[in-house]
Amino acid sequence: MKASDTPRPILELQDVVSGYGSLTILKGISLCVHAGEIVTLIGSNGAGKTTMLNTICGIVPVREGHIFFMNEEISRRPTHDIARLGIAHVPEGRRLFPDLTVVENLQMGAFLRKDRDEIERDIERMFAVFPRLRERAHMRAGSLSGGEQQMCAIARGLMARPKILLLDEPSLGLAPKVVAQIFEIIQQINNDGIPVLLVEQNAHLALSLAHRGYVIATGTITLQGTGQELLGNELVKKHYLGEA
């Protein structure tokens, strides 16, 4: 295949600079996600991982550079427009509506949709993927365990029928057995055709799952490669995998 024939990424950041007030966090970030991929971003706390997801979603404004989604520039689009285009964001800490039931939270995930019958069918699909949520359908989200809340947050994101799913630290605070379940679900989501951009503290698990990965440090990309290449990289082993 010629370079000119290579399909354009579904999501692409080109030299993106962003931050909060006078503080610059991202300092020229370039990365991409192609259709069918799981791409992971690893880095230390404060490296800019969450800021990057928030910048893609329009929560943090782009100061310089460009973001393209499905061949359309979204760099300066409002957040609700970006969501409507098909970018679903599952933020760090889940951010559920704690006083609403599981079903009501899933319905909130479809707030941009008008197809009521299809919404009900999608809720049933979510219960098929997350059987635990069916058992707790009418319980308040705030009463769920951490793992159940994470499942509910991912299901709520999928209710938008996204073209790409952004996941921020899905394993945070969860027991290893629950983390394994969450990552199996991420794999299933990707197998169903949804590309995933994954920010994750568990670098070994994330890179083992991902087709490709990026390492971010102090707001810049310092390494990139396939998941297996980064797992074998000596710097990654030393700084992110805890290997001597």
What does the model show?
It is a single chain. The protein has 244 residues and is of the alpha/beta class. It folds into two domains: 1-86 and 162-178 and 190-244, Rossmann fold (3-Layer(aba) Sandwich); 94-161, no CATH class. The chain has ten helices and ten strands. The strands form two sheets. It has a six-stranded mixed beta sheet, sandwiched between helices. Strand 7 (164-168), helix 7 and strand 8 (196-199) form a beta-alpha-beta unit. It is globular.
Q: Helical region count? A: 10
How many separate domains make up the residues? 2
Q: What Rg, in angstroms, do the CA atoms define?
A: 18 Å
Low-confidence stretches: none
Q: Superfamily at the CATH H level of the largest domain?
A: P-loop containing nucleotide triphosphate hydrolases
Cα-to-Cα separation, first versus last residue: 40 Å
The second-level CATH architecture of the largest domain is 3-Layer(aba) Sandwich
Helix/strand class: alpha/beta
Q: Biggest sheet: strands side by side, in what order? A: 6-7-8-3-9-10
Strand content bin = 25-35%
The biggest beta sheet, please? 6 strands, mixed
CATH topology of the largest domain: Rossmann fold
Based on CA inertia axes, which overall geometry fits?
globular
CATH structural class of the largest domain: Alpha Beta
Helix content: 25-40%
* Mean residue pLDDT: 93
The ordered string of helix (H) and strand (E) elements is EEEHEEHEHHHHEHEHEEHH
Number of strands: 10
